[in-house]
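Subject: Sanity check before I submit

Could someone independently write out the C-alpha cells for this chain? I want to compare against mine line by line before I put it in a report. The sequence has 46 residues.
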Amino acid sequence: MVVIHRAFGFRIVIYTSDHEPAYVHVTGPGQAKVDLTGPDDWPRLV
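---
Independent answer below. Compare away.
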C-alpha cells in the first residue's frame, strides 16, 4: 500500500499488487474506491 496523498483527514492509497482495472482507495471518515479508467476515460466512483 502506497499513500499518494493526504488532505483534510482523507488518505488516498494504491495497492501496487492489486488487480486490474487501476483504482485508488480513499479513506477517512468513510471509504470510497475510485476506478481510474472509467467510461470515456474519466474516473468514476465504484
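---
OP: Matches mine. For the report I'm noting this point. Strands lie at 2-7, 10-14, 23-27, 31-35, 44-45.
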